[in-house]
Design brief:
By secondary structure, this protein is of the alpha/beta class. 34% of the residues lie in helices and 22% in strands. The strands form six sheets. Strands 2-1-3-4-5-6 form a six-stranded parallel beta sheet, sandwiched between helices. Strands 17-18-19-21-20 form a five-stranded mixed barrel. A three-stranded parallel beta sheet has the order 7-10-13, sandwiched between helices. Strand 5 (100-102), helix 5 and strand 6 (122-124) form a beta-alpha-beta unit. It binds S-adenosylmethionine, iron/sulfur cluster and FE3-S4 cluster. The site of FE3-S4 cluster has 13 residues, from helix 1, helix 3 and helix 7.
């Protein structure tokens, strides 16, 4: 049996979590991880289908692997993730170099797929979410990161007109409350100080236990009790599921960070309707107001799709006005990309140059507020949870409560601790500083 696996991950945090769990799984059949791709016996590409020429990128990547291994023994080539789900057996037909195609809900089958690949070039893209988590619940999560992801919910029933996720991740599924807490325990044991709860609609989490229905707020309250956990975050949430019990956590919890990633996609009610988002801009303002009332230190980030079919100049200006109202500290913005099989892909595209021009305008405003936010830390001492030593320049990397990256000169003993850093330089993406010599270096 081959024994070294190289995993290349594209896409969202859930793919990152999945790649770690895939590794926890294949360890059982004797694999160890390699960071040298040319040394792999098994090469796994965990793919994302959210935008652009996702499928072509995967075939391009396979071409690259072929080149690397031209004069060597071919690795077992596995395509996993959302493109695998969307394209299924087509991939095996089009590219003989691919051995296994496995969708996100079939990862519990990966060991038998790999063990049998010689007899059976195979595709598995069933939606067996419950079986998958049943299986994974029995395998320890060995992620040993200071800041660790923990999937609590997967899939989506919302069917936004532009989005492939309901087709690639399947229907909404919430994991058992108890099993999530046990996994958090594993993460804490291997050094996690921050837990980031994940879901495509993380705040739609709803698990029917024996005595009650557990929501995201219950998970936050339970994680709060772990002394080792210093910070709690969750992503990605949807405005429709921003319930009062969750909002209340921001006044009760000492560990839930005051930073809310809450995508809206557009500032125009007309476009939100076309997108089938199921709420109006007003709803977003209401949530914003409720949270700001709890604490003015709570900040927001969002996702925007620019140039969705039907977006007029007026709709676009509504988005610009919206940005100027909320002043997001960090947001993602993308030009609408038609995804095969989604309702919006049948609508007339707006002119690409117009869309590009709008994206530039949106990003100019987003980046201005982002930089202003970063500049507000200049000269200040802030709490930073130290995550790792950087590979390139021997500096250390951590994050403040708003998820801003902070780079400073430190040492290995600080990893996993919360330290005070005095910020002396910033750019749009990161803050830079020095350890405050007067601060107590013990974990806060
Ligand atoms: N569930 C989250 C929500 O409802 O906001 C979004 C999850 S999606 C994985 C991440 C982001 O990708 C979306 O918020 C959206 O901005 C972007 N996205 C999704 N489909 C897209 C498309 N067809 N074109 C451009 N961006 C897209
Ligand atoms: Fe996609 Fe909409 Fe579901 Fe988010 S809520 S994953 S954007 S369909
Ligand atoms: Fe991409 Fe699938 Fe995540 S499409 S963004 S990897 S859910």
């Amino acid at each position: 049996m081959a024994n070294k696996i190289f995993i290349k991950t594209f896409g969202c945090q859930m793919n990152e979590y999945d790649s770690n769990r895939i590794f926890d799984t294949v360890k059982k059949i004797g694999f160890s991880k390699t960071s040298d791709q040319s040394d792999a016996d098994c090469y796994l590409i965990n793919t994302c289908h959210i935008r652009d020429k996702a499928k072509e990128k995967v075939y391009h990547e396979v071409g690259r692997v072929k080149k690397i291994f031209r004069n060597k023994k071919k690795p077992i080539l596995v395509v996993a993730g959302c493109v695998a789900q969307a394209e299924n057996e087509e991939m095996l037909k089009r590219e003989p170099y691919i051995d296994i195609v496995v969708g996100p809900q079939s990862y519990h089958q990966i060991n038998s797929l790999i063990s049998n690949y010689k007899m059976d070039r195979k595709e598995l893209t069933e939606f067996e979410t419950e079986d998958k988590f049943d299986y994974l619940d029995r395998i320890k999560n060995t992620s040993s990161k200071v800041s660790s992801f923990l999937t609590i919910q997967e899939g989506c029933d919302k069917f936004c007109s532009f989005c492939v996720v309901p087709y690639t991740r399947g229907p909404e599924y919430s994991r058992s409350f108890e099993k999530i807490i046990l996994e958090a325990q594993d993460l804490v044991e291997s050094g996690a100080k921050e837990i980031i709860l994940l879901g495509q609609n993380v705040n739609a989490y709803s698990f029917e236990g024996k005595s009650k229905v557990y929501r995201l707020s219950d998970l936050i309250n339970e994680l709060e009790k772990f002394t080792e956990i210093k910070r709690i975050r969750y992503t990605t949430s949807h405005p429709r599921d921003m319930t009062d019990d969750l909002i209340e956590c921001y006044s009760k919890s000492k560990k839930l960070q005051p930073f809310v990633h809450l995508p809206i996609q557009s500032g125009s009610d007309k476009v939100l309707k076309l997108m089938n988002r199921g709420h109006k801009v007003e709803k977003y303002f209401e949530i914003h107001e409720k949270l700001k009332k709890i604490s003015s230190t709570i900040k927001f980030s969002s996702d925007f799709i620019i140039g969705h079919p039907g977006e007029t100049e007026k709709d676009f200006n509504d988005t610009l006005n919206f940005l100027n109202e909320i002043k997001f500290i960090n947001s993602y913005s993308f030009i609408f990309s038609p995804r095969p099989g989604t309702p919006a892909s049948n609508l007339d595209l707006i002119d690409h140059e117009v869309a590009k021009d709008r994206l530039i305008k949106v990003q100019k405003i987003l980046f201005k507020y982002q930089l202003e936010h970063n500049e507000s830390f200049l000269g200040k001492k802030i709490d930073v949870l130290v995550e790792n030593r950087m590979k390139k320049n021997q500096m250390y990397f951590g994050r403040n409560k708003y998820l801003n990256g902070v780079i400073f000169d430190g040492n290995d003993t600080l990893i996993g601790q919360t330290v005070k850093i005095k910020i002396d330089k910033v750019n749009q993406n990161n803050l830079f500083g020095k350890i405050d010599p007067n601060s107590d270096m013990k974990a806060a």
